[in-house]
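Researcher: Here's a chain I'd like modeled. Treat it as a single chain, no partners, no ligands.
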Amino acid sequence: MTQEPLSSLFERPAPELAVPAPARPPWWRAFGPGRLTAALLVAPLLWHEYAAQVGGWEALAWSWRLALLLVVVPASLTLATYLPQRDAAGGGSPCAAMAGLTVVFAGIALSGAPLQVATLLLAAGIAGFGLRQRLRGAEACAPRGW
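Model: Modeled as a single isolated chain. Structure tokens:
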């Protein structure tokens, strides 16, 4: 029985033994530390504004304050996607601008019928649609069949 030297413990393993790191989905790559920080900074402002649309902080119960997060989180993430990244391609489209307007449309929807569950779900759907449009990127705006 031969003894291997201790230095063999520190050698690089064979490539076939290496375990590849799991690939991140494309939507995860859209958010870096800068964009997540921006979303965290803008979220309280949107939360305050959306609360004002449904009657102000004093009129809201804690359950409604927390339920507004269903609208605030996707809306703040949508706005954060407009920050440039180092590896992002330049340019924009009307479809990309429309996604930013969903943040405003969600606030308008909330003010339509304050403190109604259906209105809250409508506003959350509008904000979620805007975030989905931003994460899908330019292929969401390409004309089909032309």
